[in-house]
Each structure stands twice: as C-alpha cells, then as structure tokens.
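Milestone M4 deliverable, item 7.
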Amino acid sequence: MIRVFVYGTLKQGQRNWHYLRDAVFVAEHSTQPHYSMFAFDDYPAVCLGGAHAIHGEIYRVSEQQFGLLDELEWYPDFYQRIEIPTAHGHAWMYVVGRELCHGRKALAGHWP
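Output delivered:
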C-alpha cells in the first residue's frame, strides 16, 4: 500500500475526506519545518521552502485510491507530489510551485 500525507480538505471532518473513507488511517503527523502553506480560496496548498511544519494525517491507500487522489489534486498539472519522511515510512505529499503562492494569504501550517 501507498502512504499519503494530507493536510487540507482530505483530513477527517473536511469536505473531501470521503475519498479516504476506505483508506487506512495511520497517524497524525507534522512535517519538518521546511514548508509554507497558503490559502487558495477554500482549500490550502503547500509550497516548498519556508519555516513551517505542516500538520495533517497519514493514510495507507491502494493504487486505485491514489489515482483518484491524483485526479482530485489535478496531478501533475497543478499539484506535484514529493516524498516526505515520517515515523511510519515515507509518504507522498501534494505541493504546488512557489510561483503559484505569490499574493496568497499565508497560513501557519494548519488547515482550517
């Protein structure tokens, strides 16, 4: 199975969590403080670079679920994926290019 780290609308209680309903919740997780989070209307996006830890959840997903997440996140046209280290092994996290974050409201690594 594939591990993914989610930090926005895919977290429990958020509007897109139903994509992960059949996934296996692994743990809550906070990244190393190497990122920036910005508000994109009604969802967040993370950019590489910065000094914030991103707080979210890790799930184990199937290949099929991973494909659905890619579609939801407009991968690779909008979001990119990076692998991040966690205490539970590497997990994929969706990030956007830094140029897309200019002029957006900065968040402190928490959504909402």
